[in-house]
Every structure is written in structure tokens, then in C-alpha cells.
């Protein structure tokens, strides 16, 4: 998109693009209700047109894709649709270290059958010398990062396990993780770390290639 054509974009569209980019800095999922209230206001009838034009602008100018991850509640996220070079899955700028930890967590969940108890996850992080109860020099409050931030950003999902007292939770991949990486990428990452062929893990390999 040239500078001139950028100037020809209707004000609601450019305003929405800026709104989405600001939200994306913290990877906060964006609700249709917030878009209507803050940006579109009296132009409700043109909602679809404005959102579609903003989506095209984001794709052409920033290489980002606007994706609706919840069609019932109309919740959107931005994902990077530019080719990812090896070893840069999910990483963007200053968030690189956190995204590295996230990739390790996503790998652990996938290798354990796509779902892990919270106690198993904390135990695993403990082995990596990342302690949920302690402040980490890079990640800060790890428990908060994993159970609140990554969940709010839709990288992870938590579900209460029935009939557990005190209540236990299980972690699974969230819709943003499904969009921004793949099981194939994650398996290749694990194989590279462990210096093994991805086919070493037969069932995971079969699932990743499906």
C-alpha cells in the first residue's frame, strides 16, 4: 500500500487498524463489542465492510492477519502471516524470551497428549529451574505469566478437572497457539533439542503430519 492510498483509507478503517495494533502489543483478544463502542460507533451498518478493509490493510501494510477465533462471541486476534524462519516460532521483538518459554510449554503439552495437569506443568518448569512461586529475572511472576497472561492472550486454555479437591486444572493449546504455530513445528523443535528424528515419536509424528 502506497502512502497516497493509505491516505485514502476511510477514517474509521485507519482508526480501527491503529486500535487493533495497540491491542496486539499486549496480545489482548479484541471483542466486537469494543470495536463497535470505541471505533465504529454510529457506522454499525458498515461494520463488516470496515473490519474487512482494516483486515486487508493490516495484511498488506504490516503482514498481519485478522482472525476471528470465537464466532459466537466475535473475538478477534492478529497473527503474523509472514513466513517464520526456523527457530522464530511465535517470536516478536521484546517478547522473544517469553515466547521461548511458551514454545517449551506448548511442546510439553503436545508431547504429553495435548493436555497436562497444572501440577505436572509446574513440576516440568521446576526441572527447567523456572519456579512458579519465585520472581524470575526475565519472566517475572511465572505463575501469573502462564496461568493468566498466556491464557488471556489465548495461547493456553485451562479447564477445571471435575471432582478434584482442591480443584485441579488441565492446560491445553489455545486458539492463538493453533493459529500461530503447528504441531509439526513443535515436534521439529523437540526433535532438534533432543537430536532425534521426529519419527522417533511415532504417535506425535502421525498426529503432526495429519
TrEMBL record:
It holds the Pfam family MAGE. It comes from the Eukaryota. InterPro entries: MAGE (IPR037445), MAGE_WH1 (IPR041898), MAGE_WH2 (IPR041899), MHD_dom (IPR002190). GO terms for cellular component: nucleus. Residues 9-208 form the MAGE domain. PANTHER family: MELANOMA-ASSOCIATED ANTIGEN MAGE ANTIGEN, NSE3 HOMOLOG, SMC5-SMC6 COMPLEX COMPONENT. This is NSE3 protein. The gene is Nsmce3.
Amino acid at each position: 500500500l502506497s502512502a497516497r492510498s493509505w491516505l485514502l483509507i476511510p477514517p474509521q478503517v485507519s482508526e480501527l487498524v491503529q486500535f487493533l495494533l495497540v491491542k496486539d502489543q499486549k496480545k489482548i483478544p479484541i471483542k466486537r463489542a469494543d470495536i463497535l463502542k470505541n471505533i465504529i460507533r454510529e457506522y454499525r451498518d458498515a461494520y463488516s465492510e470496515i473490519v474487512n478493509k482494516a483486515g486487508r490493510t493490516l495484511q498488506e501494510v504490516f503482514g498481519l492477519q485478522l482472525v476471528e477465533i470465537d464466532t459466537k462471541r466475535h473475538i478477534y486476534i492478529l497473527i503474523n502471516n509472514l513466513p517464520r524462519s526456523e527457530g522464530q516460532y511465535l517470536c516478536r521483538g521484546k517478547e522473544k524470551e517469553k515466547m521461548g518459554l511458551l514454545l517449551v510449554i506448548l511442546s510439553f503439552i503436545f508431547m504429553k497428549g495435548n493436555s497436562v495437569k497444572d501440577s505436572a506443568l509446574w513440576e516440568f518448569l521446576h526441572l527447567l529451574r523456572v519456579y512458579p512461586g519465585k520472581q524470575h529475572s526475565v519472566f517475572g511472576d511465572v505463575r501469573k505469566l502462564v496461568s493468566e497472561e498466556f491464557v488471556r492472550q489465548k495461547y493456553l486454555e485451562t479447564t477445571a478437572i471435575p471432582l478434584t479437591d482442591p480443584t485441579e486444572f488441565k492446560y491445553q493449546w489455545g486458539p492463538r497457539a493453533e493459529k500461530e504455530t503447528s504441531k509439526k513445528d513443535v515436534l521439529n523443535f523437540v526433535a532438534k533439542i533432543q537430536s532425534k528424528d521426529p519419527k522417533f515419536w511415532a504417535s506425535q509424528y502421525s498426529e503432526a503430519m495429519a
